[in-house]
Each structure stands twice: as structure tokens, then as C-alpha cells.
Amino acid sequence: MTPAAFLEILLFYLILPVWLLAGFADASCHRWLRIEATSGWRESALHWLMVAELGLGVLAILLLEINALVIALFAMACLAHEVTMVADLGYAYTRRDIPPVEQWVHGIQQAVPWIVLLAIAVLHPGQALALLGLGSEPARWWLALREPPLPFGYLTSVAVLAFLFVGLPFAREMWRAIRLSRRAS
């Protein structure tokens, strides 16, 4: 097995699942802390924004050929996630406790996107260098489906796990926050 093949296996079968589990752990912390009663729907909305920012980037990596455009899009998603995370923590910090376990989970959620970006750059060095105006390969700035595509079973599994471990828990968080906000009104 080549180092690139091994890195791709780590990326898709270890790092991505760990990231999804971190999302579930974060939503579990929020439920345990009852954030709907402290920071409410506004914090939950920031969580959804972060899910959308990185979710679109992950979809691009899973479905599209990795080129300079996809690497740039994922890098922008990482930066947008950082900015939103700072806003989220600034908002939450003034309204509720953020215990050590939740901070640890946030550390995973903060590090993994950058690890993914680096792994993608290592797997596609020509396009990563071209994005920076370096190397001999011309940057490709178009979207094309991945050839060959990742296995359908894998993509389906990721979609189901993302729904169960991230989508559903954060939807329940928002629902609890909106429900409590309406009761308070």
C-alpha cells in the first residue's frame, strides 16, 4: 500500500468518523448543559452555521475531483468556521459555563478541519502548490465529479452517520431552544 493510499484510508475511515463523533459529543454537552435555557437559539444558529460551512466543504471533498478550486473552497470553509467559532464562543462564554470536557471536544472540532486540509494538500500536492502559485502544474479552477467516485455504500454510510450524529442532535438542540423561547415570550 502506498503512503497516499494509507493517508486516504485514514482520512475517510478514521478522521471523518472521529469528526462526526466530536459533533455528537458537542451536541451531547449542549443537551446536558441545557443551552436552550442559557444561550438559546442564537447559539444553536451559530452551530448550524458552522455545520453548513464545513458540511459543504466535506461534500466537495467527497464528491468532486480535488483541484485548486476545491482546495481553496475547503480552505475558505475552514477560515469561515474559525470566524464563526470565535463568535460562538464569545457569545456562549458570556451566557453559560463551557466546562473542560466541552472545551476538549471543541479542540477536536477545531483541529480536524485543518488536518483534513493538510491531508488533501498532501494527497494532491500539484494542485495545492498551484493554488499558491508554485510548482509546475497549472491550477485547475473548475468543478468536476470525482473519477472514480467514492463507493456508494461509503457515501451512504457517511450521510447516515452525519444525519444521526450531527444533523439530528443539532436539530433537536434548535427545536428545544425555539420551544423554550416561545414559552418565555
Question: Would you write up a description of this structure?
Answer:
This protein is mostly helical and 185 residues long. It has one domain. The protein has six helices and no strands. The mean pLDDT is 97.
Task: Offer a few descriptive terms.
mainly alpha; 0% strand; 185 residues
How many beta-strand runs?
0
Strand content: under 5%
Low-confidence stretches: none
With helices defined by DSSP (H or I, 4 residues minimum), what is the helix count? Answer: 6
Element pattern in H and E: HHHHHH
Mean pLDDT: 97
Radius of gyration computed on alpha carbons: 18 Å
General shape: elongated
Fraction of helical residues: over 70%
Say what oligomer this is: single chain
Number of domains: 1
N-to-C terminal Cα separation, in Å? 61 Å
Computed structural class: mainly alpha
Please give the largest β-sheet: none
Provide a compact summary of the structure.
The protein is 78% helix and 0% strand. The chain has six helices and no strands. It is elongated, with a radius of gyration of 18 Å.
Q: Could you outline the blueprint of secondary structure elements for this entry?
A:
Blueprint: H1 3-33, H2 40-63, H3 68-93, H4 100-123, H5 125-131, H6 152-184
